[in-house]
Amino acid sequence: MIEPAVPPSVPAAPAPRGRRHTVAAAGAALLLAASCGLTSGCATAGQASPPRGEAAVRATAAPTAADDEKAARTPSNTLMRSAGSPMTVIAHRGASSAAPENTLISDEVARRGGARWIENDVQPSRDGVPYVLHDTTVDRTTDGTGPIRALTAAQLDALDAGSWFAPAYTGARVPTLAAQLEDLRVRGGNLLLEIKGRHSREEVARIVRLVRDHGMTDRVFVQSFDVDALRHTRALAPELPLGLLRSRLDPDPVAVAEELGLSAYNPAAGALATDPDVVKELHAAGIALMVWTVDSPARWKELDALGADAVITNRPAEMTGWNAARP
Ligand code: G3P
Ligand code: CA
Questions:
Q1: pLDDT digit string (tens) for 198-222?
Q2: Is the pTM of the predicted complex or chain greater than 0.90?
Q3: CATH code of the domain occupying 52-325
Q4: I want to staple 310 with a disulfide (CB 3.0 to 4.6 A). Which of 24, 189, 247, 290 is the partner?
């Protein structure tokens, strides 16, 4: 069963406090989300504002061969940032500080706060349907109990994934990956899809099939702690960019990235602190750096100065506002 994209009782996205530019950024994101529903793709965070003057005239003219070549080199799911642009905001399990994690409501709150990338966690049900859930059990984030891999799709569909967070969110569901992809496709946004835990080749194949069936290959970036899951993805869907999650830095991150065919290397913020120079080394090899999970402006500032390309955060609206105020 595909749940409704946003139940009628969805609370309004929390208004970011204290910064006018934050509100403006959120408003712009709403417009973007609306327009994304009518187009095949969405702008990524950090992309330029709508063009003005001469640039706007050029933008409406037929694309040149150079434009085509540039577009071919820069799909919407690339996360390497260009000089001067802000770090991409990636909403960790949606706007998980403001709404129940890994639900479509959490995604909507993140979108209204200006995030154009959502991070999730994907695991299969007992009958093999990919669902969006972080823990190995449903105990913490739903009104049910038991390992996700022991529950059928019908059992998972019956769970309440919102009331644990706040009564206002009662009725939120554990989304299937299919429902989340469809919601993003229609409402706008890109997905940092984490294959959570060990997955067989067949389980990865089912994920890949869903991404393709929903026409989202240019708006999905796959990441995992599990090297085999990345190898399966690369073999099955070479068009999908890959990121390796790490709690500690490898002795030679560039070598690992090259061996696995990564587009990004994704360390924990604490791990990055042990060797900040790794950012330059990765960039020299054409590999982006996405850091998790960082919620404080002081750390965003440090990561910005280091050259990180993207930050996975529980506070996407706040980081969007922080980005907007960046000199
Ligand atoms: O996206 C990075 C982060 O989500 C990895 O840790 O445990 O929150 O999935 P975890
Ligand atoms: Ca995750």
A1: 999 999 999 999 999 999 999 999 9
A2: no
A3: 3.20.20.190
A4: 290
